[in-house]
Structure prediction request, 425 residues.
Amino acid sequence: MDVQQIRELKPMLRRYLKQFDDCFARKDTRAHLSKYVEGQLSNLERKSVEPIALKVGVPVRTLQEFLSQHRWNNELLRDRLQELVVRDHAGANSIGIIDETSFAKKGEKTPGVQRQHCGAVGKQENCIVTVHLSYAVDDFHCLLDGDLFLPESWSEDRARCREAGIPDEVVYRPKSEIALELYDRATAKGVQFEWMTFDEWYGVKPQFLRALDGRQQKFVGEVHKHYAAWADLPRTTHRPHRRSGRGRSKKVPRLVARSRPPLHVEDLLQYHPALRDQVWQKWRVKDGDKGPMIWEVKHTLIYPKDENGLPDKPHHLIVARNVLHPEEIKYFVSNAPPETSVSKLLLVAFSRWRIERCFEDHKGEVGLDHYEGRRWLGLQRHLAITAVSYLFLAQTHANLRGEKSRTHLVPGAYGDCGGGAVLVA
Prediction:
């Protein structure tokens, strides 16, 4: 950046934040938003309330009250951010990504804190967990929304919840349900996802996959090796079972007697001819810091079980094996139309790095994990403002870079050195 560009940053930030003015009824409360964002965008090592307040010249107590007590509409702030993303970054190749992140915390007062798996340290630790929805299109990505995962131990202790300011209607919800709520909120604001993707923690929840399919949403999600499906469509019948006694038997769909049960996808890979006899095809999925990442891929159509234990409509199954580490095998399932290309499915399947990069930047650049308050509302507002700060950072970086956004190229078959051979991470 040159001197002139640096001088232009503050007016750019002022114009950007003016789009959120109607989230605040009072002018003095509105002014605290710019102070908080300026602190998050600064070079402070720790971006919690106290160091931010000291840097921008606001009483610490005032900034604490701005987050957790002052009256302003943080939900409208979140909605406005999503509207800006739709206005400025809508695209035909949009991908929504669901994932969670965690923040190690000391003590017992931070809302939702308990000893649980903490991805930040890779083990059980005292932490909080938040579930997030990100948006990626072309070269752009950001977080759209996030919410606290409230453990059952907290949900059952309403006195503890009230002490932390957690409303009585906020109770334990599985992370997959939180993810669907984030998705529904975003789509209600006009966000359109051509695709959704997620890791196997969400892929092992059949009801989550069915919920997305019921919303007419295409997805490519990682599933566990024990995900069960048929590679050959089994026969079903409406003929009733024979039974003794009086009364008519109900005519409900069921599998024909002695039908083969569905197999785990790892067994389909090993035993079913559709995958067992298929030659692995090498794809250069993306280039990493240590060179190209090569995956071997097999693909076939499968029929998962529906909620009644019957075969569902055909889904894609992609098996990807790391060439350098053959013991690393990933299984992906998609409800996309049968004619969808493997290259398109791979592009979506290997796009989860975008939300991981968002988490890394949110924590390293704007202090996502630096919240030290003890109030639920303060945490919710911190999540929303952090997304606002990052969106300004992402857009400003793109503008100053002066490069026209382009669609990420789909991966090509290994050996294809022409355009479109690499999905660059």
